[in-house]
Structures are given as C-alpha cells and as structure tokens.
Amino acid sequence: MSDHDTDWLDRISAPLYFATILLVALPALDLVANIWPLRFGDVGWRYGAAGLMSGYLLTPLLGLLLAWVVASLGRHRRAMLITSLFAVFGALVLVVIVLGFALDALQVRSGISPENMSHFEIGALKALIKYVVVILALLWPGVVGWRIWRAERRGRGHRRGEKTPLVRPKGAKGA
Hints:
There is one protein chain. This protein has helices at 3-35, 43-54, 58-74, 77-109, 117-154. The longest helix is centred in the last third of the chain and has 38 residues, at 117-154. Helix 1 runs antiparallel to helix 3 and helix 2 packs across helix 4 (77-109). By secondary structure, it is mainly alpha-helical. It has one domain (3-154). The protein contains 5 helices and no strands.
C-alpha cells in the first residue's frame, strides 16, 4: 500500500470504526428491548431470548469484520488486537449461550404439543446452525488477527508497506 493509500485510509478509518460500533451496539439494544423484562429464571424466556438472539447475530458480525478489515488494512495494531480479542471472546460467549439454549430446548420440548413439534425442532435447529456458523466466523478472523498482531509485535515481517496476509499461504511456516 502506498503512502497516499495509507493516508486516505487513515482519514476514513475513524468514521468506519464508528459505523462498526453502531453495527454491533444497535442490534444489541434492539434485542434487549425485545426481550425486556429479563427473566433468567424462566426456562421458556431463556429459550425464546436465545432463539431470538440468533436472528440478531449477522449485523454485529459484519460490524466486527469491518473493524477487523479496517485495522488490518490500516495496520492499526491496537485495533487489530482489540477486534481479534473481541471476536474470540464473542465466540466463547456464544458457545456458552448455545449450550444453555440446547439444554433449555430439551426442557421446553416436553411442553410442546405433537402437532407443533416439527415447527419447534426446525426453529431450534435453525437457531443452532446460526450460532455455530457465527461462532466459526468469529473464531477465524480472531485467530488470524491474533497471529498477525503477534508477528508484528515480534517484528517478524508485516512491516509498514508490506502486505499483511489474512490467511497463511499453503506450505508457509510460522505465525
């Protein structure tokens, strides 16, 4: 990337980072508004809230990925570390939510009438698939970003002006 390209990216990075915050925060606010009041002791509420949350995952994922790309292209080391850690932390939180969702689904299932069972099972399966895909989509850039950040911190390659690989070429060794 030339100095002109870097200057241009530096000028637009602040509004892009702000947009990424909105892409993460606004769906979270919408979700909370839809599941309020919080009733963590109610298995039906937990199942419904987790199922509803599965539909809100894509926009925050896109926001985080946008921040990650801006950090990568702009060589913003701190932002790369923050987005990578946030991605991995988010994936771990979603794993806990998925485990709770699966257990709650088993409990709620006993109260579902036979004629509604197929709808229930399809809905639960769709939510689980969304969670698993988003978990993988968070882990991949999280791990890659962590490796890039670590390599730059050690001073091995990835200096300003060099391309930063988002995926390691086949046969390449190291970070």
